[in-house]
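Figure S4 source data
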Amino acid sequence: MAVGRRRILVGGPKANELAQFLLELGSRRDLTTARSFAQQFNGDKTRWAKYLNGSEVIPSRTLGRVVKHVCGTDARKYAQDLAHARTLYERAAAEDRAAGAKGDAGGAQVAHRELITAQQRLTDSQVKLAEARDADERARAIIAMLMLMCARAESSIHELDERNNADRAQTQQSLNDARLSLVRTKQELKRARRRLVVAERARKALRKEVEKARRETEKLRRGACGSRLLLDDDAERRPFPDRREIDLGQDGDPVRYQQVLERIVREGERLKRDLDIIQVHTGRLGLGSVVRSPVAIGLALVVLATLVVPVITGFFGEGPDDQPSPTPPGEPGTMGEARWADPCGLLDSASLSRFGKTRLVADYGEINRCDVLVVRKGVEVAEAQVYLDKGPVEFEGIPVRTVGNVTIASFPREEDACVRIIATADDQQVQIIGKQWDTPAPNLCELADAATDHAVGVLDDGPVPRRAKEPSQNSLARIDACTLLDAAALRHAPGVSVHDKRRGFGSWKCEWSSADGGSRIKIEYSRDNFLKDNGKPVNIDGTTGFVAAREDGPDNCVVRLPHRTYTNSYGYATIEFLQLTANSPQPSGQLCDAAKALTATAKNIAKHIAEKWQNRTDGARRKHLSDARKASGMNEPT
């Protein structure tokens, strides 16, 4: 009979006897392990292991099945083993019940002790909870006090910030006022010095000329007695015209003195030619030295005529007979007559020298524009532009300040530009732009502010300064841009009406548009050093122009056509050109063809006006010269 491994019995004595009996029964049928019992009688292997080591009493029914399986058909043996098994089972079961009762009593004692411990812990917890609540109340009181202190501290900090901001603003305002006062003082000093020099020069020159004219008058009076060209009594008593009464006004403005002196220089060559003509007449009359007095009369009248004509006629428009003369100086902070306003008079390169080397450029871009270039290490890195334009201007959401009669708006900086706008007292505007061209560039808004401070100082003292001299006789500056296209020409731009036009500043720009605003034609004048990089070269009525399709959008075409080339104050060639911009929802080829046709018409009209101006100016000069000869008693040359 196979015997399994010796097992360790862990139950009570009776339980161990039952387990030992169970092992003996199993050994008869080779049931020596818990697995073999579980396979034979079903059940859990772990459970059978407990039956076999005495830790758990096998159920009586299961025990009966084991006995029957082992005894088989031997009835006598079955009865004996079954009775012995029941005895062992009852003893083991009684032992197990007694152990359970004893365990329940011990468990009750343990539970009682645990209950006392729990009650003690509960009491301690309640005490600690009360202490925690007291601490919470104290903490809340402390927090409330700290919050009150924080609120007071924040209020104090806010008040300090407000006072600091107010002090800072007041300090900044005082600094700005001091800077403005310094700029004004420098300007006034410079202006006073310039006036002093100009006035002294003009006084000496005019005194010399007046004295010379008086001496010539005396010679004329003495010579008139011995010649055939006698003066009437009124002529003898009439004093030599005082130049100040004719040209300068009664206030003796030094600027007007300077204008007279410049005109005298310009007329020098013409006077020389006229004197040659008069000398030819002298020789024909055979008067010799005796007729110098009539010659002097003619010369004096020629001088007066050539000086008076420009002052009376002005220089803008189609001819000298229909032009506005420069208006008298206006109120401080005003633009005045637009075509005489000089944008360069609002700039001073020296005042911007802290940003780098500076150079004033008066012959670039639009006619109503002037620049100061800033150069660093030989590179033009930035510029301050002054651009005169029509108004009025409204500033919504833009910080503004008022100085004297003008309002200054400071716009936020864009990518490569910073803009300031001065609204003048007569509802015009001065745009001042700090613009970047290269690096390292200065702070653009500081550059624009410095240029603005200078311009404001000038405008606080008077209007926008007047132009010192007239433009060339063949310059586009003399021509009203709105006269360059008529109804017949605008047929190339369907829908655009000759009556729906807007005139730009100084009449140097004009724009025509359709009723719905979808089509527009714009003409403006500008200047540049070269145009070859401004589009495709094309022949426009015998002149090489430059066409740029889609320059400012898909429905856009720009044509630039040179009008004249001249040398600027720095000795460089400058091109004055006419720029026509066409906007219309048309194919680009068709739109540019229409733009070229319109440009050709504008070019011919501008050329005709310039020639008409030249002819009428020459005619007026010849007429005044003829009147001077007649007044001197001379005949016209044959």
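Figure S5 source data
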Amino acid sequence: MSRIADLRPSLRDVIRIATPYFRSDERWAAIGLSVCIVAAQLALVGAAVAENYWRNAFFQTLQDKDWNGFLTQFGVFSVIGIVFVLATVYQRYLIQWLTIRWRRWLTTRYVGEWLDGPVHYRAALAGGPVDNPDQRIADDIRQFIDGVIALTVGLIGAVARVFSFVAVLWTLSNLVPLRIFGGSYVIPGYLVWAALIYAGLGTIVTHLIGRHLIAIDFERERREADFRFALVRVRENSEAVAMMRGEASERGDLLGRFSDIARNWYRLMRWEQFVSLFAESYKYYSRYFPYFALSPLFFGGPMQLGAFMQAGSAFNSVHQAFSYFIGSYVRIAELAATVQRLSQFERAMAAAASKGDAASASIDKALEVDDIEVRDPSGRKIVSLAHLGLASGESALLIGRSGIGKTSLLRAMGGIWPYVTGKVARPAERIMALPQRPYVPLGSLRRAVSYPAPIGAFDDERLREALGAVGLGYLAACLDDVEAWDRRLSEGEKQRLSMARVLLARPDLILLDEATSGLEQAAERDLHRELRNRLPHAAILAASHDDRLRDVYDRGVVIDETLQQREASGATR
């Protein structure tokens, strides 16, 4: 990864990602909340300015031993404290409100783009720098919004402090001349220039030390996500791991991934300690540096204690505002890394969406394929098919050994595989493809059997009928049970569940990629016959590594070792 020293591209990406929300349907709520948050920040700055003037009056009462003035200043301090507390509490409340609204909108947008057809699948095929999209959506969006709000509010506060306290320092600079080696010099705003130079030097040094943190933080998030993904895979495949006694292998892999995290963490520690050593030293000594600088004016000049304390407080406020970049550098680095990840995710989704579906809408037939050639992402040829046509109600069995390319052909026909040339024509919408390994969503059995239709699309009678038709009638009473159905059901039961979905959806074209391979031969044949009998108008293309279902389908299409197609006659149902 190249070293990232220039933050300007990250700033442009921040604006590009953030702007759409403030132009969306929620723009007025977003703008209103933002204005209120900024108003609260300005109220805090106003309270700080009031406290600065209060310091002058308060310490002057101490020097004058003015008891009544002392009590009066405590009353003033109490009023300032009320403003400070209310502004702090309700600014935090408004930030939380804006954060959840913005996160909901941006999550909806990203999830919508990621699950816009097979974009999620094509993005994973392309490989490249985008990994763990779950982290992009669940973590990076939250970190992006938190970082943008915190840094923006902090920057506005810093600018407001500069404009508010520069006037105080400038005035004090003119009232109290600078004394050097016994001489008195009137330098307009010399305290302001001192604060600016002090903060500027600190900013430059901090950036030179900490510029490596962006790349290191980017790598940290990637390795953390890889580790979480590996843990989830072990959990989801715990039965297979246990059956094969693979615990030692998985343990070694997980600990190896964690070792990568630890190595990167030590790099992060090393560079953060350099940044922190300078930043904390700068912060610590800055608190009393102005008093040291102003001490000759107090001990040997006309400056009173109140003005001395006010000048020191104002100087601290100004140089802290000028030093905003120093105090926020680690968070800026984290935000820059987060923005990089989100930008890569957006580019990957856009690239996957641009590939589109090469299939055209079929008018005369349910499926028509001519001179199709399927390749892998690197361009290597996987399989080809000269011609295949299916009218409504017709069926065919695609036969070939394992690894010959049957699954790739079905993916291309289904419209999810982008690396394909030739003609594919099929229904624009009413198509359903079943993979060999069924997917069972989280939630109730009702959702699992209705999928991909929403809950409520089918009444209980239809759901029970579909379950009974595929041999799962014993589950009809469990429709509303919320369990880990993916783990409770066997592979054969999950394949039966997928066939029930087809019966409910009643598509025009059905693609079956060895979708019943987990069943015994007789049950498999009965299930395919049931499908054809209940959906007589649907076109069905099934794939199998042998010809055991030839008697169920109208004809067979054999893909042989030379990747050439040949017709094989078969009995009809």
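The chain has a mean pLDDT of 82. The chain is about 60% helix and 10% strand.
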